[in-house]
Amino acid sequence: MTTPSIDIDERLSHASTLSSAWYREPHLLQVEMKNVLARTWQLVGRVEQVAAPGQFFTTTIGHEPVLVVRGNDNKLRAMSNVCRHRAGPVATGTGHCGVFHCGYHGWSYAHNGRLIGTPEFDGVADFQKQDVCLPRFQVAQWAGLVFVNCDLTAPSLEDILEDIPDRVAKFDFGTMKLAARKDWEIDCNWKTYVDNYLEGYHIPTVHPSLNRELDYAHYRTETKRYYSIQHSPVKNPQRIRLNENDANNEALYFWVFPNLMLNVYPDNYSTNLIVPLGPERTLTIFEWYFHNPEASEVQEKVKQTIEFSDEVQIEDIAICEAVQRGLRSQTYQQGRFSVKRENGVHHFHRLLAEFLAS
Ligand code: FES
Ligand SMILES: [Fe+2]
């Protein structure tokens, strides 16, 4: 099996897009799981899910089963959710417990991952249970969100987010609460969806009603080391829920490499997590955060926000699925970037090339 070229010219005006094989070949998704998803910070949950000692949740990053738990020492830890005996699940779902019991043969593990119980396992040569521990992953939290990085040598979450926390400090994310969640499964490669998110070039064609709200002429994308931000001044603040009295009237669309989006408005923000399910199947998880989401007047705002998001998402799904069919064509290998409108996509492809090559 061949790995196609992943050279992306650093000059936007000279560069071509990532070749189409990367969007459809099953073995290339395996390369991405290992080189990209397992080496980057992944949003896995919320701090409130692991607020108390003993609280835990489980998840999967790429193929990696992950367990996140707050220990009795109040420390948050992330570790492999794969039992060292014969790879059973150390924990399942979410919950609260003093000790983890593997769901296969009942080995037990402490919150820090140490193996503490091995029923009916006497007489095994060269085996000391005190030497066994679940492999650790990096864990960090920001604005009430929990992130895990399976690569212990990766830069810290702080380094990756750079100045995002400062840029959004005025919105007071940390005190907002989860108001709604919506999952969508889409027939496209995960990068087809991310590419589409990273440019406003398609807005006039694909999103006519969104285009009426935005000041497309002034739409711009700024790229940083590991994230980019799309600034979108708006014409009609009511529909997009902006503050009419705010002189700096724009929506901020952050994207953090490789698969997380943060859409920031004055009274709410949402996360979009883009999860590859297969080479041509993707799950997008949308979660909305508001202040006091239980209040009935806030519920109404949540409803309006989701309705507008749905409208745009349905248009994006249709175009992403059509593009995916195009990417399967034997006649198409790769394209070029608009210098004015597609610097965000180029930035993404450069980062992919960097991670895939190393
Ligand atoms: S696989 Fe966990 S106890 Fe056997
Ligand atoms: Fe779109």
Name a few traits of the molecule.
23% helix, seven-stranded antiparallel sheet, Naphthalene 1,2-dioxygenase Alpha Subunit, Chain A, domain 1, single chain, Rieske Iron-sulfur Protein, 358 residues, 2 domains, alpha+beta
Folded structure, characterized:
By secondary structure, the chain is α+β, with helices and mostly antiparallel strands. It has two domains: 42-153, Rieske [2Fe-2S] iron-sulphur domain (Rieske Iron-sulfur Protein, 3-layer Sandwich), CATH 2.102.10.10; 163-357, Naphthalene 1,2-dioxygenase Alpha Subunit, Chain A, domain 1, CATH 3.90.380.10. It is built from eight helices and 17 strands. The chain has helices at residues 26-35, 157-161, 164-167, 190-197, 203-206, 208-213, 296-327, 343-357, and strands at residues 42-46, 55-61, 64-70, 76-80, 94-96, 100-101, 108-109, 115-117, 136-142, 145-149, 177-186, 220-223, 227-233, 250-256, 260-265, 268-278, 281-290. The chain is globular, with a radius of gyration of 22 Å. The two termini are 18 Å apart. The model has no long low-confidence stretch (mean pLDDT 94). FE2/S2 (inorganic) cluster binds at residues 83, 85-88, 102, 104-107. Residues 83, 85-88, 102, 104-107 line the site of FE2/S2 (inorganic) cluster.
